[in-house]
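User: Show me a protein chain along with its predicted structure.
Assistant: Here is one chain, sequence first, then structure tokens.
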Amino acid sequence: MMVRTAIEPSSMPSSSPTIHLATLSQAQRERLAFIEVKVYFCGEVRRADIENRFGIAPAAATRDLTTYRTFAPRNLSYDMSAKLYALGDRFSPLFELSAERALAWLRLGIGDGVYQPGKGFLPTDGAGLLAPPPLDKLASLARAVHQGQATRVSYLSLSSGSSQRVIVPLALVDNGTRWHVRAYDRKNARFGDFVVNRIGKVQPLSDRVEEHETLISDIQWNRIVELELLPHPGIAHPEAVVADYGMVDGVLRAKVRAAVAGYALHRWQVDCSADHSLPANSHHLWLHNTPTLYAVESAILAPGYHRVV
């Protein structure tokens, strides 16, 4: 039995909204915000996405799509063949969204609700990003990752300055101070990291993406290394560090991707010298098993590490 639903183009609202977002329930605003975030950062949203995320019936998800389109008809474009909504050609967000919140949603699968400044359960603060990436650029790269698209970008490199690159964005990476996009770089025929803030205009391409350009072929991304972290031998009271990190038998074991190991060790201020020669007052942890970093390309960023040739 076929049921005509409101997600078909013929149900497109033809008049201005007679209701306001503030009159909707908090639960419905959360669902509308999810629709917006999903289409903005993934380039598409399906009715099933709403059903699965919130555990609601198809009819309820259909009503949410209709309501969202009432407020923002240009934000969604119905794709008849794929039976989904794509990003509209004149997208304008309904909800306020910070880059940090968007990154939390992208990285952890949470934070996809309505942004309400000052509505936290208790006072919190922290050292956030000095320069969060522009939201539109972040969204363009996220869509390329999700849709498996190659992109043409302008990029500012510390070593070679400005240049045009064709990259295949594969994943977003937080190094603690900046965000990178892990991508296949066609110019240099290798996988690498590109600082999001140094990327200029992002132009999606229709070029075919070959298997050797995909994440499954990125050896550094798929290799997992186990780090054995100990209290730095130069610390007078190592039991304090054991308590800090909840160590078991005086050891903290962490598994990370080779592609991000160097960033992690730098962020955690781990002394990676074989003889633990870095100052203990600024490096509370020491990497006990330094050979694990052999052939890890990002290890060049690890404090005190000297690559074995």
